[in-house]
Amino acid sequence: MPARLLTVASYLAVSLFLQRRVLGDLTGTAVGRVSGDATGFTWWLAHTAHEFSLVTDLQNYPTGVNALWNTSVPLLGLLLAPVTLTAGATAAFNVGMILGPVVSGAATAWALGGIVRSRIARAVAGGLYAFSPFVLAHWQAAHLNLVWAVLPPVLLGLARRLLVREPTRPWLLGALAGLALGLQAWLYTQTLAVGVLGLVVLAAVLAARFPRRARRRLPALVRAGLACVGTFLLVAGYPLDLVLAGPARPQTPIRSPDYGSADLANTLTPTWVTALHGATPTMQGNLGEQGGYLGLAVLVLAAVALVRGGTAARITVATGAILWVLALGPRLYLHGRALGVDLPWQVLLHVPLVAEVEPARLQVLVTLAVAVLVGLALDRVRAGAGVVGLVVVALVVTWLPADAQRTTPAPARAVPEAAGQVVETWPRITGDWYGGADPLRAQIASGFAYRLVGGYFIGSDPEHPLLIESAWNPYQQGAAAMELWGSTATDPGAAAADLRARGVTMVLVTSDDAAVLDWTRRVTGSSGTRLDGGWAFALPATLQR
Question: For the whole model, what pTM was predicted?
Answer without folding.
Answer: 0.94
